[in-house]
Amino acid sequence: SAGGTNPSLVEAMYLGLPVVAYDVPYNRSTTLDNAYFFKDEDELAEVLLNLSEQELQYTALNLQAVAYEKYTWPVIANQYLQLMIPEQAHHEDGPVVTPNKLTYTES
What we know:
- The chain has helices at 7-14, 25-31, 41-50, 53-70, 73-84, 86-89, and strands at 20-22, 36-38, 95-98, 101-104.
- With 107 residues, it is α+β, with helices and mostly antiparallel strands.
- Strands 1-2 form a two-stranded parallel ribbon. Strands 3-4 form a two-stranded antiparallel sheet.
- The termini are far apart.
């Protein structure tokens, strides 16, 4: 694995699909450890042979929730904004990006 967030993994999560992923730190981080992982062919076979439909559905719903929480355009845009404009990263409420404007939330 080259590293980083895998776009096809995030897309599968967003679509509510269960995920069985290669066991590398990037995949664990992206899924918040809510997927099934394997390190070799034997582990992959074991995972696939032992998962129930109920476990797959539960995992799919959990991963979809992670995707909606961490991988939406407003969330990602705010993270980039905080990197590009560090002084705004320290604002108490933090910046909020909407499609056409930058605003601050009020507590």
